[in-house]
Amino acid sequence: MKLKVHHAVVGLLILVVAGAIAGSLLWEEARVESAWGPFVYVPPAYPETTGSDLDGEFYLDKIQPIFNRRCIVCHGCLDSPCLLKLTCYEGLLRGARKGNPDGTHLFAEKPVRLTDQPSLAAWREQGFCPVVEQEGPSAERPAKSILFRMLVAGTEHNQPPFSLKPVQPVYQAINKHVCPCEQGIDDYLKQRPKAGMPFAMPALSPEENQLFSEWISAGSPGPTARVMAEVGKLAQPEVIARWEAFLNQDVPLSPLVSRFIFEHAFLATLHFDESPGEYFRLVRSTTPPIQVTTDKDGKEVVTASPVHEIKTARPYDTPYLKGVDQFYYRLKKVTESRVQKSLFLWKLNDSKLKRLDELFFQVEPVPGKSLKSDFASHNPFEVFQAIPARSRALFMVENSHLIVSGMIRGPVCVGNLATYAIKDNFWVFFVDPAHDPSVLKPELGLQSWNDFMGYGITGNVKYNDAYNRMLDKYKPTGYEINDIWDGNQKNSNAWLTILRNETNATVLRGRQGGIPPTFWLIDYSGFERLYYSLVVNYEYYGSVEQKLSTWEFMSRLRQEFEDNFLRLLPVDERQRYRDLWTRGIGQELLFRMPFPGENVGKGLEVEGTDPISGVLGKIQRRFTEVVSGPHDLLNPGRKPDVKLSDPIDDFAGWEAAVSTLTMRTQLTFTRFLPSNTFVRLTKGKESRVYSLVANRSYAFNNVVFDENGARQPELDTVSAYHGLVGDFPNLIIDLKLEDASAFLTELDAVSTTEEWTAWKTKFGTLRNMAGFWPLLDWLTDWNFSNRQPDAGYFDLKYYMLLDSMH
User: Fold this and answer.
1) Of 95, 506, 558, 801, which is most buried by a Cβ count within 10 Å?
2) Confidence class of residue 504 from pLDDT cuts 50, 70 and 90?
3) Domains in the chain with CATH codes
């Protein structure tokens, strides 16, 4: 889902001297490689002192917090403008470079995650230039530093209210940035005097600029070894030791099980209930796991070696590099700042550790299947044969939020056209592994495991035919209500709400946002095919051909899962809904996929004239509110008897009023509403937070270059949510309760671009307003106070970009 194909592809298809001093301290120069390849990443070696009058904590205490609040709102991920990533000191030292490996290019490029090169010199070879000057007289360093000069330009030109017109062409072409590295900062700013930082947003305060001047003059020192040792210290090493011991057991099945877990969680951030506030990544390392022993006095002794991560292009590539005879699965502590768009957590605790042991080690391996973790193959159906299919399937459905989040949120960090293969919002359900043909008969009668991973049309048809034959064998009357996994009526991973709103791609547990237009029912083998295509095999830096292949496969899988859900409907209703879900030219491009007709069961017996509501009602009663969540009062099907013009006196009144607009088609304002709007609503001293999400409607999603041609704006809707939903707010609003009625009444009346602009200017906090940063800071604080441990810094790269202003 994270495949990113830009409109520019159409034409293509039709026809800081940082490496000198500080860099040598932070990277091992001996590991330089001119081309990207597998290597062992050794943690940076921080200096014992800063070499200046500033202490070792200055950077973390004074500089990084400014980066967090003002800079990583755009420079927080691998697709940051000029690839400048400011979530940690290593990213600052690496610097900037033009281009975006996630963009459109004929041939594959090199990955640019911070640990994808073994040294600073290797990044310099790849074209990265320093953004801070660390040599020469201290008084001259700020004027020679790209970072500081850009901040000064922002101070000169971005004092609110300032005009956005001079910079609109630049941030409309958001992935075509020209970087100061190529032409030098003097010429760059001479040609673009208003391109200062923060870009097209209010300038930093004089105090913040003074801190940067002081720091850069001192040589831009980072944290010292003592400080980083404290930052990297484990609060509860015994917790991490338990998990590392589990992942490195001395039993025959352990390497295969740990590889399975690793390949399904390598993009995630791990958080343990028993060690709150700490975050980790699961990696492969040359160093052994933590050991906790007891000395002669009965005290625990922790022996922990540094994590030396084995870096390979893909998680299934062999870790046995030259000189590596043994490797271990380790938990590497995350110390850089967290950005919301790339943060998806796997929340773990001791009870989940016990559950993993039950799933994988309290069952017998499949007889006759190899227990060897053979890195010669990357086909999950072949590699993991010895692990019972039921255990694999249960792992995936019980952790579906983790698995699906990996598909749409990493590593690219932005949805945009990448997610066009799916609808804007839909609900996902799963076939119960106990009744799933691909679990009961893992081979599905196919002759080769390669048939499971054939991404082309022919291979897909072969797989579908095999699955349908097994479905006919095991479920001759078709899927029934008890064939849908209900999470044992306690696991909310059984019901997911998926949103793809231009830049935002969000996975929520339970039923949220109102009844969407379409639904998926995912079986195990389809789930695994989807995950390996979009995550494990996906190369964000790959060629346009690779990305198109992934997009096409995604489109076919979407159709399969929609059709799976249609199997629950009465036979004579299925074609009608399939025609509604894919219209126009899309109906001619269904890749001749088999349709769930009379040969796959009669469907559920439902009452009333709306079979979809009937099926959902049966699912809801089976799942209970423990899984689905409570009734959604913000997006109800039956609207309250409320008029927008009525006075709104309390938060309940606001929620009732806004609910009269949600999930309704034929409204004129929805086509103008940006993807994600955050609202702070205040009554007296109390404030509450809501999100308004625009759900765009498309006639079809299987023509990669015709998103705009497929638009059905009359069918757009808006959903309302408690709290903050989405990672890329497009508009933030500070609203007094006494103005809430006018806010909704005037919004409902918007029908033209001019009316929308007037409404947005009246109620919105625009990026060139003085109140912009204070409101964003309040929302950021609310996020970290109310959503832990799932909280990160929001991204503003697309703020006010994807709406009618342009």
Assistant:
1) 95
2) confident
3) 9-227 (no CATH), 234-387 (no CATH), 415-629 (no CATH), 651-786 (3.30.1050)
